[in-house]
């Protein structure tokens, strides 16, 4: 009986523990940002218009590359294995340019983050841009924050169904335009547009348009801030690029605390208007507080409300696209958009108080302002110098390789079976597949010769020329010419199992490229 009681008690305790653990879970609280006007909101609209304009219109730009060549300025031609960027044509062998661009992009992002905080997240990230666009549509159709909150609480009705249907319909149209525009970077834009709506496009086109339509609709329409908070890895390590001189969205606690509504019959004295001094309470009111002696002399202590500039209106929270309170300090969820600054400034302006209670500033400057010192911007720091140096080095290497880029190249593949063939006259022959890359839009002639291979002779399958030290080969415009080449050496000259030598390919202008390879012979 006692054992049964103990078991029941244990099971009850485990059940209560599991219930407690389950109660720790909190579902998503849907964020309904309020519309706001101000400098940072205008800056975000400008960024949105420019970036979306580039994205949707860039595939329609034309660039004349001559006959039988695509005339789309920006194109990644997968079937032809080419990438076009205006006058630049990138071959598969030059994929290192893509790697270089990605490295420069990463270092540039590190540099910008160390200087200006999360401006990429707040203004240029695709998730931010399309979410802003989707929220604009939602605001147009369903109304501002209070109207949307009220609509959420209402039971389903004809009016609610019509608004929700209209909103999602527009969202899907935007998502379809987004997915379609992405495909246009890989296929000629006018052609794929006609083929898409006439049912003549390939299955892959319809599949990827559908895929990008669905992801745009889900991420920008439904997931929104959850992508930034839970899915994106950048917030997890972007703080490693921060220091006390990094520009971030900050709350001037020294002049905002203690918070409170204005009191009737009392005079509000802003800490920003009087010389600050450190408080005697250990800093619970912020880095500094009002110089009460001077305030008392000017206004009379009994007429001062004793509150900071923050009136606890929470408008900064209402406009935040991730739903956080910036007054709690720098947070992972903050994307640095600055909308809370616009919201707070609108309130301060109505109350006649100094603006920028929430401001775009450095933590070091906040300490200086709290002490009454003059703020300053420190751009040259060890990390910014390091990032700038790395960016300059990688950019310099990229520029050098681009300026010295050859208009032709050669690729040599040694036969694997057999590695060599003994001939009846005692000579040893090796076979090679030679590929000549002609990167120009004209037929070119090339001279192929051997270097560092004494008594070696070339012969090309299908050519009428006899064996010689060099042969002349041609390649069609913007193509790869493939030749079967044999290299022979007298048996007496083959004294090594393997010998390094080079193929030299010279074009009509005297430009030469070299390819290292091996000549193989029998065991000696």
UniProtKB/TrEMBL annotation:
Matching InterPro entries: 4Fe4S_Fe-S-bd, 4Fe4S_Fe_S_CS, Cyt_c_oxidase_cbb3_FixG, Electron_Trans/Redox, FixG_C, Ig-like_fold
Keywords annotated in UniProt: 4Fe-4S, Electron transport, Iron, Iron-sulfur, Membrane, Metal-binding, Transmembrane, Transmembrane helix, Transport
Superkingdom, taxonomy of origin: Bacteria
Record bears the keyword Iron: yes
Limits of the 4Fe-4S ferredoxin-type domain: 300-329
Disordered as annotated region, ranges: 255-281
TM region positions: 43-61, 95-116, 169-187, 199-220, 384-403
The name this protein goes by in its record: Cytochrome c oxidase accessory protein CcoG
Gene: ccoG
């Amino acid at each position: 009986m006692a054992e049964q009681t103990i078991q029941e008690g244990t099971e009850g305790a485990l059940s209560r523990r599991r219930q407690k653990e389950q109660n720790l879970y909190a579902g998503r609280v849907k964020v309904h940002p309020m519309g706001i006007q101000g400098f940072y909101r205008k800056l975000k609209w400008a960024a949105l218009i420019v970036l979306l304009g580039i994205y949707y219109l860039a595939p329609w730009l034309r660039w004349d590359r001559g006959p039988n060549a695509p005339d789309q300025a920006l194109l990644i031609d997968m079937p032809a294995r080419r990438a076009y960027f205006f006058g630049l044509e990138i071959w598969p062998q030059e994929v290192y340019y893509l790697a270089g661009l990605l490295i420069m992009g990463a270092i540039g992002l590190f540099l910008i983050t160390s200087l200006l905080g999360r401006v990429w997240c707040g203004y240029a990230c695709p998730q931010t841009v399309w979410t802003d666009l989707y929220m604009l549509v939602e605001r147009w159709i369903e109304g501002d924050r209070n109207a949307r909150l009220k609509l959420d609480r209402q039971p389903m009705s004809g009016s609610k169904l019509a608004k929700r249907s209209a909103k999602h319909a527009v969202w899907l149209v935007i998502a379809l335009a987004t997915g379609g525009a992405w495909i246009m970077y890989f296929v000629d834009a006018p052609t794929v547009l006609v083929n898409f709506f006439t049912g003549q496009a390939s299955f892959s086109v319809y599949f990827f348009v559908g895929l990008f339509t669905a992801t745009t609709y889900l991420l920008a329409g439904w997931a929104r801030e959850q992508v930034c908070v839970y899915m994106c890895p950048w917030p997890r390590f972007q703080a490693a690029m921060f220091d006390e001189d990094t520009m971030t969205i900050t709350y001037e606690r020294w002049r905002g605390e203690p918070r409170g509504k204005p009191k009737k019959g009392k005079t509000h004295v802003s800490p920003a208007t009087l010389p600050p001094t450190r408080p005697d309470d250990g800093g619970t009111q912020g880095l500094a507080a009002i110089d009460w002696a001077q305030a008392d002399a000017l206004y009379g202590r009994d007429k001062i409300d004793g509150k900071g500039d923050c009136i606890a209106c929470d408008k900064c929270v209402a406009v935040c696209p991730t739903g956080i309170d910036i007054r709690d300090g720098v947070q992972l969820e903050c994307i640095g958009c600055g909308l809370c600054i616009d919201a707070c400034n609108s309130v301060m302006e109505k109350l006649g108080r100094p603006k920028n209670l929430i401001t775009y500033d450095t933590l070091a400057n906040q300490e200086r302002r709290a002490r009454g010192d003059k703020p300053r911007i420190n751009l040259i720091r060890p990390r910014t110098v390091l990032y700038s140096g790395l960016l300059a080095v990688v950019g310099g290497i990229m520029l050098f390789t681009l300026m010295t880029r050859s208009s032709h190249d050669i690729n040599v593949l040694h036969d694997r079976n057999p590695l060599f063939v003994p001939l009846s006259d005692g000579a040893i022959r090796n076979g090679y597949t030679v590929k000549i890359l002609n990167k120009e839009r004209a037929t070119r002639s090339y001279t192929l010769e051997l270097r560092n291979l004494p008594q070696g002779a070339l012969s090309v399958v299908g050519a009428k020329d006899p064996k010689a030290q060099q042969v002349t080969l041609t390649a069609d415009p913007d193509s790869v010419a493939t030749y079967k080449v044999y290299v022979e050496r007298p048996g007496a000259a083959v004294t090594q199992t393997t010998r390094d030598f080079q193929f030299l390919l010279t074009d009509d202008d005297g430009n030469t490229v070299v390819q290292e390879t091996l000549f193989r012979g029998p065991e000696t």
